[in-house]
């Protein structure tokens, strides 16, 4: 009997990082054959991210965004995924997170009556506008999922509160910790251009809801911090979206202690995290990863669907207000005890074995017996 075809869909670099451990576990199994499908506009980022884990996409769906609309992503992704189910004979679809790609994958799987496995299920802010459109996307994905892989007990409870059956919920842990611990354990090399200062800050930003005045405020605060403190420097792998890139270069460019660089390979990003004093980000993944490395995180958002790390004290919401961000940075700079309280390694998101649990549950819970 042939192996079960599992369509593994990725549309962004963070999705690749979190799906890679699942794909690797499926490949190592004696029953599954993962077929990797990448979807997106920034093909080079996906190719690089996949190659970081020794992976290559079996199929790529290029999105032609003439209007810059998420509807273009949804419609083109759905049309091609529908055809790929026929072409590959897929018996299940697996996707991670809350992007429009994930929502499209869930809808196609539901319409085609193919089991959909949602990795990192149950995250909620309760506000459809924050983050936009991710909160809507993950709720839609939940409606169509056959197996909900919740990264934390809190996420699992959110699913129960929405009426999801207990036997459809798996408390798996978060696969990003699988990827992080495996990568950090290999001792990755620090990027050559990492700032040589006592207190380097790793910065990332990409959230759609922060475009415009909000991101200008946040970047202004970071520039203020570098101007105020000679021992602070920034290392900022800048997202290719022009709404981020143009503002970053205008407000943060031209300073010897601010390094604006291209998106880094995952191993180099992990090395940068390990070497950083703190992390300033709006990324969900870094909210999960940095606490495991004992790095304080200031989150450039007003709400988060990841309250577990906030509860540990390792993560703090600072929004995009210029004074609020600068005050938070100044407190950590001046108060060693405040810094130490945030800099204890904590693991609210898993033990590095989430992918094993997910693949085992897929075999036992959703796929037909031989």
Q: Which characteristics define this entry?
A:
seven-stranded parallel beta sheet, Rossmann fold, alpha/beta, 13 strands, 2 domains, globular
Query: Percent helix among the residues?
Result: 40-55%
User: How many helix segments?
Assistant: 15
Strand order in the sheet with the most strands: 3-2-1-4-5-6-7
Q: How do the helices and strands follow one another from N- to C-terminus?
A: EHEHEHEHEHEHEHEHEHEHEHEHEHHH
Structural account:
By secondary structure, the chain is α/β, with parallel strands linked by helices. It folds into 2 domains: 4-174 and 351-366, Rossmann fold; 199-342, Glycogen Phosphorylase B (Rossmann fold). The protein has helices at residues 13-28, 43-52, 70-88, 100-111, 134-144, 153-161, 175-184, 213-228, 242-252, 266-275, 284-292, 307-312, 322-334, 336-342, 354-366, and strands spanning 4-10, 32-40, 59-62, 92-96, 116-119, 147-150, 169-171, 199-204, 232-237, 258-261, 278-281, 297-299, 315-317. A 7-stranded parallel sheet has the order 3-2-1-4-5-6-7, with helices on both faces. Strands 10-9-8-11-12-13 form a 6-stranded parallel sheet, with helices on both faces. β12 (297-299), α12 and β13 form a beta-alpha-beta unit. α13 (322-334) crosses α14 (336-342).
Topology:
Blueprint: E1 4-10, H1 13-28, E2 32-40, H2 43-52, E3 59-62, H3 70-88, E4 92-96, H4 100-111, E5 116-119, H5 134-144, E6 147-150, H6 153-161, E7 169-171, H7 175-184, E8 199-204, H8 213-228, E9 232-237, H9 242-252, E10 258-261, H10 266-275, E11 278-281, H11 284-292, E12 297-299, H12 307-312, E13 315-317, H13 322-334, H14 336-342, H15 354-366
Parallel strand pairs: 1-2, 1-4, 2-3, 4-5, 5-6, 6-7, 8-9, 8-11, 9-10, 11-12, 12-13
Helix pairs in contact: 1-2, 1-7, 1-15, 3-4, 4-5, 8-9, 8-13, 13-14
């Amino acid at each position: 009997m042939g192996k079960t075809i599992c369509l593994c869909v990725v549309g962004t670099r963070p999705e690749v990082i979190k799906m890679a451990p699942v794909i690797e576990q499926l490949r190592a199994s004696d029953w599954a054959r993962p077929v990797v499908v990448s979807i997106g506009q920034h093909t080079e980022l996906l190719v690089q991210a996949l190659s970081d884990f020794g992976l290559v996409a079996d199929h790529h769906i290029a999105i032609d965004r003439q209007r810059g609309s998420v509807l273009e992503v949804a419609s083109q992704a759905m049309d091609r995924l529908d055809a790929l189910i026929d072409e590959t004979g897929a018996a299940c679809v697996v996707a991670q997170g809350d992007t429009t790609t994930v929502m499209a994958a869930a809808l196609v799987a539901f319409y085609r009556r193919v089991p959909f496995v949602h990795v990192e299920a149950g995250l909620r802010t309760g506000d459809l506008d924050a983050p936009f459109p991710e909160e809507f996307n993950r709720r839609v994905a939940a409606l169509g999922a056959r197996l909900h892989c919740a990264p934390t007990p809190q996420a699992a409870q959110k699913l129960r509160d929405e009426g999801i059956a207990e036997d459809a919920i798996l408390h798996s842990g978060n696969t990003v910790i699988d990827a992080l611990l495996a990568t950090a354990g290999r001792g990755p090399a620090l990027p050559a251009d990492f700032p040589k200062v006592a207190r380097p800050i790793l910065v990332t930003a990409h959230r759609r809801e922060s475009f415009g005045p909000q991101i200008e405020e946040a970047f202004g605060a970071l520039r203020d911090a570098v101007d105020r403190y000679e021992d602070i420097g920034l290392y900022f792998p800048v997202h290719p979206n022009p709404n981020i890139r143009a503002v970053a270069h205008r407000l943060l460019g031209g300073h010897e202690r601010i390094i604006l660089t291209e998106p880094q390979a995952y191993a180099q990003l992990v090395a940068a995290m390990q070497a950083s004093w703190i992390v300033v980000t709006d990324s969900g993944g870094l909210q999960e990863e940095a606490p495991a490395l004992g790095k304080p995180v200031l989150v450039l958002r007003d709400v988060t669907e990841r309250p577990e790390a906030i509860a540990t004290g390792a993560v703090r919401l600072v929004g995009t207000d210029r004074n609020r961000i600068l005050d938070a940075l100044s407190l950590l700079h001046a108060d060693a005890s405040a810094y130490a309280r945030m800099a204890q390694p904590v693991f609210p998101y898993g033990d590095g074995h989430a992918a094993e649990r997910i693949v085992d549950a897929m075999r036992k819970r959703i796929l037909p017996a031989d």
